[in-house]
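tl;dr need the bound structure. longer version: we got a ligand (6-O-phosphono-alpha-D-fructofuranose) that a collaborator sent over and nobodys looked at where it sits. i said id run it. heres the input, straight from their email, havent touched it
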Amino acid sequence: MNKKSVQELAVLIGTTLDRFIHQEQSAFPYATGELSHLLRDIALAGKIINREVNRAGLVDLSGAMGHANVQGESQQKLDVIANIRFLRALQRGGEVCAIISEEDEGIIYTNNDNGKYVVAIDPLDGSSNIDVNVSIGTIFSIYRRVTPIGTQASMSDFMQGGRKQVAAGYILYGSSTMLVYSTGSGVNAFTYEYSLGEYILSHRNLRCPEDGSIYSINDGYFDEYDDYIRSYVLKCRKKGLTARYIGSLVGDFHRNSLKGGVYLYPATKKSPSGKLRLLYECYPLAFLAEQLGAVATDGQQAILDIVPQHYHQRTPFIVGSPAMVGDILEEKGPLTPPPGSCTDF
Ligand code: P6P
């Protein structure tokens, strides 16, 4: 075989996550490497969870813990394991001073008070799907802290608002395991190659199609949705669009981002503010969505413009192809001015 240069081999194997992060960092001359290290810490935890998710059925890691988590939802064994793995990875990495996790009520302090970043994370979203081998995912959101380096982090570090995220992404444990993230300069996706133990760049500069024919919503709550949501769903049915809802946000989001489509989790009677969490589900996916050229809204405003009030705040969530989100908002009709406001312009 003729001797191939390292560069040629790198191209043959593909660009690894490490090489990509290094290349991306060099584009920012003042980058000091901490964010790069943090992204690698998250990627490492994803490899460990990937291994545990893939063998859950064999080593009795599937199924429920038998009690609820802080959200009052049935906690799965893998929820607990994934939470521990990410907390350990971020604590050991040293770049993160504090974490908010879906699985814990309050701030988790890492004792790295010199860490520049805080992370909000849903360690394993859709974990009730594990037993039936449906895709699940980790969702993460990264902020540069606003409190002084060397002090203990506080709520203000997490209440900066969606547009202050410096990076966000997800790990999808599906037919293949993928890490998809953005640091604000586009979205890139890496497929995990188990035999190499490497994430390999598989989708460079992902863009969401302007329009699509897939809508993702839980039809079981149809009667509980606002009129405009029901009107939209009826139009989708009439147009013969494809209904795809797998009960795993990351899986639906990923498919719709690649093929075009829209995901909706509106307010319901059971969840009048919506079910999904702002800090570690909707903000990070909305950050990615805007980087993909997609749209993310609560039906009133862009998700990234919602002012955060508390760690586990919920919000209605509509995200996907701009044309489809536009069709949904059109069903609302012209926004009626609030009562008592001036209407003669
Ligand atoms: P429902 C999983 O619990 C999750 O947070 C998302 O991943 C998923 O899209 C949604 O909730 C499913 O909720 O009420 O339709 O079962």
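gonna send this back to them w/ a short note. The mean pLDDT is 90.
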